[in-house]
Amino acid sequence: QAELEESGGGSVQAGGSLRLSCAADRYGNSAYCLTWFRQAPGKEREGIAGVAGDGFATYADFMKGRVTVSRDNAKNTLYLQMSSLTPEDTGMYFCAATLFERLCRDPRGPPTRGFGYWGRGTQVTVSS
Questions:
Q1: pLDDT in tens, 100-110
Q2: Strands 57-59 and 46-51
Q3: Which of 35, 40, 44, 81 could serve as 91's disulfide partner, Cβ 3.0–4.6 Å?
């Protein structure tokens, strides 16, 4: 049973918006770097955004400007606000946590390795 749980996914048309949430439980503590990843069918997992315990956020170029990552440490919750969605954004979206805080400082967004705590994902489907 995963200790991080994503929610907020669903089906939207191109141009639409979604707000994803991740109940991070103990990993919502500010000591943890919290991140979002996605994986499209048949493709490798991609880092989207990360936010450190102090609120410092990084974004991968492919979604920069269309997503905002944030966290509420008091609620142990991570968020990803997405807009201007396209069919290429279709995939499973995961949240992940690590104590390696430096992984939330990479200006290219979070790398795919180094995260030991994962949710099971929430599906996002964007249609034309």
A1: 999 999 999 99
A2: antiparallel
A3: 40
Closest CA to 71 of 1, 4, 116: 4
Antiparallel, parallel or unpaired: β 77-82 and 18-23: antiparallel
From 3, 23, 118, select the one nearest 71 (Cα to Cα).
23
Using only C-alpha atoms, what is the Rg of the chain? Answer: 13
Span 33-65, pLDDT tens digits = 999 999 999 999 999 999 999 999 999 999 989
Position 2 scores a pLDDT of 63
Token duo for residue 49? 């955004």
